[in-house]
Design brief:
The structure holds two protein chains of two kinds.
Chain A (H helix, E strand, L loop, with lengths): L4 H18 L14 H9 L9 H4 L5 H9 L3 H16 L3 E2 L15 E2 L13 E7 L12 E3 L2 E5 L4 E6 L5 E6 L17 E3 L2 E5 L4 E6 L5 E6 L3 H4 L8 E3 L2 E4 L11 E6 L5 E6 L29 E3 L4 E5 L21 E6 L4 E7 L14 E8 L2 E9 L4 E6 L5 E6 L9 E2 L5 E2 L9 E4 L13 E3 L4 E8 L1 E6 L13 E6 L7 E7 L6 E6 L9 E3 L3 E5 L4 E6 L5 E6 L9 E5 L2 E8 L9 H4 L10 E6 L6
Parallel strand pairs in A: 1-2, 2-33
Antiparallel strand pairs in A: 3-39, 4-5, 5-6, 6-7, 8-9, 9-10, 10-11, 12-13, 13-14, 14-15, 16-17, 17-18, 18-19, 20-21, 21-22, 22-23, 24-25, 26-29, 27-28, 28-31, 29-30, 31-32, 33-34, 34-35, 35-36, 37-38, 38-39
Helix pairs in contact in A: 4-5
Chain B lengths: L1 H15 L4 H12 L25 H10 L15 H14 L19 H10 L44 E6 L5 E8 L3 E6 L6 E6 L3 E4 L6 H4 L5 H23 L1
Antiparallel strand pairs in B: 1-2, 1-5, 2-3, 3-4
The chains are: A mainly beta, B alpha+beta.
């Protein structure tokens, strides 16, 4: 056993956590902790595999797997936990509990926390508990912090990772990856780590995937996913741990590159499978790419996917086709760009796909988050997948079969199509044309940027940070050069025709798309949304405010000036019965650079700090 | 005509330099040039050429901003900005010249003039359609991952059958509690041992505490396992490229 000062610290932390939580019965089923990813899977799949000692000797809060074990030898506490927690897990596989174990909060990616200690009645008392400064001010802090067993893991643009005591902010360890100077045009961005199998996984801006010992921060393995100098691609998204694998996508959709998703053995880093998002010669769908266009057709997998353990399906959103704005070299549907793909995670084989936009010429990546929910559509309860995309539309699919259920616009200003038929066909395509400058909406930034929406099972609504921005698209002929930019044109941001340029946070019915309320931003909203069982919606703005809205009305209930622009993703977690709300701060990102082109007034302030809020002790 | 117009604008820019042109130009720059994938804030990053830290010629700048560069991503601004605005923009961009933050991304070494055969071989060597292509273990002329030896330094006579080539640096790693695997040792210190694990299509750099792994010389691994993603014919084409490349190195050394 390795000895490291932080180990003792971690052990003490765990012991304290365990003592507090075991001694109390959860107030409600919603309070139940959700286990880390690997354990979630084991529970739902009904198998049990030890992952480095029993829950008891790891000193963690009771997890569901611990309670399944407890069921064998009758135990009152175990049984209560099982009864309270099991139905919640089945019905709410997208919700986070005491921990925030994976990018979207859980495999279903709702960005919803079951914690309700902070609620509409007391959020006014929310105050900083601690602040952590990373010192890496490049491109702000864009991560989703991950919390497992009370330890918070945070990553930065330059591929630094920190493990912090979630209750105090005390640093347990830090790790700095030696990033090379060869960073592709997607730049240094990092949206978070994944945690599982005793390791912390980090994707880097020079295209490495790195595994660190969760207790010490020591590097265990690293693999160069593809030389970034060649592919012009890198990793900016958070990896996803599924079963005994860690899965990562890559950027590259605006370069002459062929996208893919790669799975690695979580323990050894050995590659298990790679799925190319563009079929190669002899593969089904290859004929949707003429000539050599398949080699350079984009289809990046730059955000994080979702996973349904019951269906054993891994979902990933695939980005735009390249060249982005010019399809002259790729006439055809261009599978599987702008598609949702569902893979068997054990083999990497395609189970189904749904292409939202055949032959994309607007740079409308379909790479964003996919929320897995059960929704009643047309009178039938469906296992659905909600996909808010760059194009200003939200697609609703059957996640078992890939069947199109419905799609609705979440922006007011769109003119790239006139609508979508009940069968899912795009109607009235309005394409950019060579030799013309066309004003098209939404812009290549998207009706929403990559910052994530949230879904609350309590209101049943999805909360989207909307951008009403258009752009001039100018088509250009371009020859692909492997790994180099391949956009096939230019874009210049413009306000919508006959409407004001604006941004707002809005609540929508996920099936009808009916807007329930909306709250305008001073400029725009580029931070993710967090929903909680306290019926609160949290997000931050470029002006530096971190604020809470009433999930039912949109009424602003609380706000705190953090002093730097928000481009990250807030989370909630609980330690020792105390609920924390954590938000990264610090402006950055490629889209963030466009701020001055779009909005008057001062530029958002850079920075790189994690602010963590809680109710003062004793608050009810 | 055009030349006279440009000269007039250069003169205007020089005149403006004293009266806040650069400040106004900075606003224009942020709105027009720092957009995603172009020149980046303060001229530091993006797909377009880096502006910070470069010696820029004021005449060229005027010309490029005014008329764009046909066939590239650089649009013309003559229809978008007024001439005095272009002057302000030039004044600001000229101030970026001496600055500079991060070093520019390294570009691949200037491609030598490849023979058609060598070009075909290089394409196979770095074929991104196969995970585990030669480039995933070998670096050559600015591309690839340097796990194996520097191929540019090896004599041309070395390149015969790539499946049979000797790999003296590959050893057997025996980690505690895990099956042995073929490895290349990268680091051995008191504290830890780092090896490339060659088991899978992509080499994995793995770190072990010193006492958790034993290294034995020799291995049953053969280079043929790495080259199995290629046909014999393809390997011959790759070998041709490597012979050509080695002869280039030899020539360079003579000079």
């Amino acid at each position: 056993m390795l000895q490291h000062p932080s180990l003792n610290r971690l052990a003490r932390l765990r012991a304290r956590t365990a003592a507090v939580v075991v001694g109390r019965t959860p107030r409600s089923a919603r309070d139940a902790p959700v286990p880390p990813p690997e354990e979630q899977h084991q529970n739902l799949a009904g198998t049990s595999r030890p992952t480095g000692g029993s829950a008891a000797d790891r000193g963690v809060r009771p997890t569901i797997s611990a309670d399944f074990a407890a069921l064998g030898k009758p135990s009152g506490i175990g049984l209560i936990w099982l009864l309270l927690a099991a139905p919640v897990l089945c019905a709410q596989n997208g919700a986070a509990g005491a921990d925030w174990p994976t990018y979207g909060g859980a495999y279903g990616a709702w960005r919803y926390s079951t914690l309700d200690q902070v609620h509409r009645g007391n959020v006014q008392k929310l105050a900083p508990a601690w602040v952590f400064q990373t010192g890496d001010y490049e491109n702000g802090l864009q991560a989703t912090p991950i919390v497992v067993d009370g330890v918070l893991y945070l990553s930065t643009s330059n591929a630094w990772v920190f493990a912090l005591d979630g209750a105090t902010g005390h640093m347990l360890w830090e790790y700095r990856f030696p990033l090379s100077n060869s960073i592709p045009l997607y730049g240094k961005q990092n949206r978070g780590v994944a945690v599982g199998r005793g390791l912390v996984y980090l994707g880097t801006a020079d295209n490495h995937l790195v595994a660190l010992d969760r207790r010490t921060g020591d590097e265990v393995w690293r693999v160069n996913v593809e030389d970034s100098r060649q592919c012009g691609c890198n990793i900016t998204g958070a990896p996803l741990v599924v079963k005994d694998m860690v899965i990562t996508g890559v950027t590259g959709g605006d370069s002459a590159h062929r996208g893919y998703l790669t799975a690695f053995d979580a323990a050894t880093g050995r590659m298990r499978w790679r799925f190319h998002t563009i079929p190669g010669p002899g593969e089904k769908g290859h004929d949707t790419w003429p000539g050599e266009s398949w080699r350079y057709g984009g289809g990046a997998t730059w955000m994080t996917g979702s996973f349904d353990p019951d269906l054993n399906l891994l979902y990933w959103g695939v980005g735009n086709a390249a060249a982005d704005l010019n399809a002259a070299l790729r006439r055809g549907d261009n599978l599987y760009t702008d598609s949702v793909i569902a893979l068997d995670p054990d083999t990497g084989k395609l189970q189904w796909h749904y292409q939202e936009i055949p032959q994309d010429v607007w740079d409308y990546d379909a790479a964003y988050e996919m929320q897995l929910l059960d929704l009643t559509v047309g009178g039938r309860l469906r296992k659905a997948l909600l996909h808010v995309t760059k194009s200003g539309f939200t697609w609703v699919l059957d996640r078992q079969t890939g069947e199109f259920l419905t799609a609705w616009p979440y922006v007011k200003n769109y003119n790239w199509i006139t609508g979508i038929s009940p069968e899912g066909k795009l109607q009235g395509r309005n394409e950019p044309e060579w030799g013309k400058v066309k004003l098209l909406c939404p812009s290549t930034i998207g009706g929403k940027s990559w910052n994530q929406s949230a879904w609350s099972p309590r209101t049943g609504w999805v909360y989207i940070p909307v951008l009403e921005i258009c752009n001039y698209l100018i088509v250009r002929n371009e020859d692909p050069q492997e790994g180099r930019g391949f956009t096939g044109g230019n874009w210049i941001m413009k306000p919508p025709p006959d409407a004001k340029q604006e941004s707002y946070l809005a609540a929508f019915d996920p099936v009808t798309g009916k807007r329930q309320w909306s709250v305008p931003a001073t400029t725009w909203l580029l931070a993710s949304v967090l929903a909680t069982a306290g019926d609160l919606i949290f997000t931050g703005d470029p002006e530096g405010n971190f604020f809470a809205l009433d999930a039912r009305t949109g009424k602003r209930l609380w706000s705190f000036p953090t002093g730097a622009g928000h481009r990250g993703s807030a989370i909630s977690y609980s330690i020792g019965g105390r609920q924390y709300i954590a938000t990264p701060t610090g402006w950055g990102s490629l889209v963030g650079q466009a701020h001055a082109a779009l909005w008057p007034g001062p530029l958002p302030r850079p920075g790189s700090a994690l602010f963590v809020f809680a109710l003062p002790e004793g608050t009810r | 005509m055009r030349r006279g117009f440009l000269l007039a604008m250069v003169a205007a820019a020089a005149g403006h330099a004293q009266d806040g042109a650069a400040e106004r130009g900075a606003q224009l720059y942020r709105a027009n040039c720092a957009i995603p994938y172009c020149h980046g804030p303060e001229g530091g990053a993006g797909r377009a050429p880096r502006l910070a830290g470069h010696r820029l010629n004021v005449n060229t700048l005027f010309k490029v901003i005014t008329w764009g560069i046909p066939g590239t991503g650089m649009p013309e601004f003559t229809t978008r900005l007024k001439s005095n605005e272009i002057s302000d923009l030039v004044a600001y961009v000229m101030t970026l010249g001496g600055g500079g933050a991060a070093p520019a991304p390294a570009q691949p070494a200037a491609p030598r003039t490849l023979t058609p055969e060598a070009k075909e071989g290089r394409a196979l060597f770095f074929d991104s359609a196969r995970a585990g292509a030669c480039g995933s273990c070998h670096e050559l002329d600015g591309w690839g991952v340097p796990v194996g030896p520097d191929l540019a330094r090896l004599p041309p006579g070395r390149w015969k059958d790539l499946r049979e080539i000797a790999t003296e640096n590959v050893v057997t790693a025996r980690p505690a509690g895990e099956a042995p695997f073929p490895a290349v040792v990268v680091e051995r210190t008191e504290a830890r041992v780092r090896v490339y694990d060659l088991t899978a299509a992509l080499p994995v750099l793995r770190s072990f505490a010193r006492g958790r792994i034993a290294i034995e010389s020799g291995t049953s691994w053969r280079h043929g396992e790495a080259t199995r993603r290629y046909t014999a014919n393809e390997l011959e084409i790759v070998a041709g490229y490597l012979r050509w490349r080695a002869s280039q190195s030899a020539e360079k050394d003579i000079h």
